[in-house]
Amino acid sequence: MMIRHIPLVLACLLPFGSAWAQSVEIAPVERGAVATQHVAEGVVEAVSSATVAAQVQGRILSTAVDAGDTVTKGQVLMRVDASEANQSVAAAAANVASAQAAAANARAEWERTQALFKQKFVSQAHVDQARASLRAAEASLKAAQAGQGQALVARDFTTITAPFDGIVSVRHVDAGDMAQPGRPLIEVYSPGVMRVVAQVPLTVIGRANTAKLRAQLEVPALNQLVAAERVTVLPAADPRTFTVEVRATLPQGVDGIAPGQFARMHLFVGETSRVTIPAASVLRRGEIVAVYVRKEDGFHLRQIRPGESVGDGRIEVLAGLKDGEQVALDPIKASLSLKQTQAAD
What pTM, to 2 d.p., does this model score? Predict the structure, then answer.
């Protein structure tokens, strides 16, 4: 872009002795180290989220929540038909009772055998056989009790509860649908801690100090730009795209953030020397971007080509200014001084 001076009719020739000139604050054009940014497009996701899936087969009898509802840990979300599970529990209880009776009979037989052995009526082989029968019966009882516990746990799986306090993001099924082991039923996330996830080229991460990596997070839908609390670079790269996943944690208390929102991650990956000026000194009129530059004979309006904001209320200047020059901090006041000078002439 060619940088040109505004025609003389727009220029301001203002003597330094004038009261207007003395009242206009100025700021120096500075060249210094400015953080280099890389902007990556990403998505907002919850740090704590869970997809609750079915663990038993059965028809869904009822659903207690829908997307957008707030839930607490342990709250019932939906129920699956427990008829088959109840039958399994009953069968397991019968197996336990049978095993208990067999174990009791085996113990009584072993005790009788011991008594007979002491009276020399049976051999040691009979005692060993009775002891083996008792151990087998006790093992069968333990197996039956374990089966009963497994049946009880399976029955508990028919009641779907919330794994933690959070918000329901998606409900995949309705009452009457069939639940199958592994089929997703509902998704829950905790709104307490959110993060932005983006894929960043390895060439960018390679020149950054990952231990001190900083980022600003922009959510266009909310028109917000906040500083990330923590930036984490995953150690594994994608061999197809040669990118690495970067996660930046959002500060708590940012309203309106929800998983799935589009976001931009402004990563500070290094420093470079740039010419900067206070953003307040920039005057924008249509397609013209200019500043009032102080010279020996007064202020002159000069067109510039601005760059990105570099923080601390300053903006980068790509062309039109050089370090050491001075600009008016208040372009409106400088414009009024121009009118006063023109009126005096």
Answer: 0.62
